[in-house]
Design a protein that fits this description.
Layout: E1 18-29, E2 32-43, H1 58-65, E3 73-78, E4 81-82, H2 88-97
Antiparallel strand pairs: 1-2, 1-3, 3-4
Amino acid sequence: MTAATAVVAPEAPAGERVSLSMKDINVSFGQTHVLKDVSADVLHNHTVGLVGESGSGKSTLAKVLVGIVKPTSGAAVLDGKDLLKVSGRTAKDIHRRV
């Protein structure tokens, strides 16, 4: 299996608010790299579909965003809150919005 690498989304148009920002997310399980340098921005009130081949890392990325899988490195920020560093009730409330 090869690691999935996302194409970096273009910069948000002037005046557009970014709700979810992912930067250089990497996930490895042992020696297997599942996600490599995944970066993308999702604009406020926009819906995004994640499409890829079986085993390409779609579910792993979703699990990172809802707090089920901890990435090896990278950042994910939802409306100014770091998804990878929140815990407890705050994490539950934030991850429900992803």
